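Hi V.,

You were right to ask for the full record rather than a summary. Here it is.
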Amino acid sequence: MNDADVSKQIQQMVRFIRQEAEEKANEISVSAEEEFNIEKLQLVEAEKKKIRQEYEKKEKQVEVRKKIEYSMQLNASRIKVLQAQDDVVNSMKEAASKELLNVSHHHHVYKRLLKDLIVQSLIRLKEPAVLLRCRKDDIYLVESVLDSAKEEYSEKLNVHAPEIIVDSVYLPPAPSHYNAHGPFCSGGVVLASRDGKIVCENTLDARLDVVFRKKLPEIRKWLFGQVAA
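Predicted structure:
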């Protein structure tokens, strides 16, 4: 083999090696491009997922805030309604309290009422001796019905007539412009055992409080169409 043949073979081998190298380099380049694209896609998807999660988190936070605000507004509205209802109910009680002041103005009716209140108190206490307290303005009427009250109590329970001691300390007077914020009493009596351990408060104001508490559900239902708890 001459030099020309050897040179030709070498050139062929060089071309073959170069072609192999180019093909291998091309494969490496394509593979690297594919891996880059895959990694890039994974990074993009990961960022998209992160953004979606953050958006969903913020969306939930917004929904929670909306629910909290709605609940607060609803509670505030309910409180306003309840306050308005209480104002109406209290105004009714105040009107009833003012009407009580007229009871003692009708002496004949009030005298009979005082007797009934005394008898009722005696029946509740069932004591042989009691203390009685009333308003200073009512002392004359109270003393005028004591005997008949003791007699009626004695007949109803078939016992001896009790001793009733009228206390020198009086109940507060009726409310007035001069004493608008002080203690007051619209009428009635308070009876107690001699040792003061048992007390029967039978004033008009106390009876109004009892009746009002008892009838409050009915009053609310009549006014607002619902039974308040």
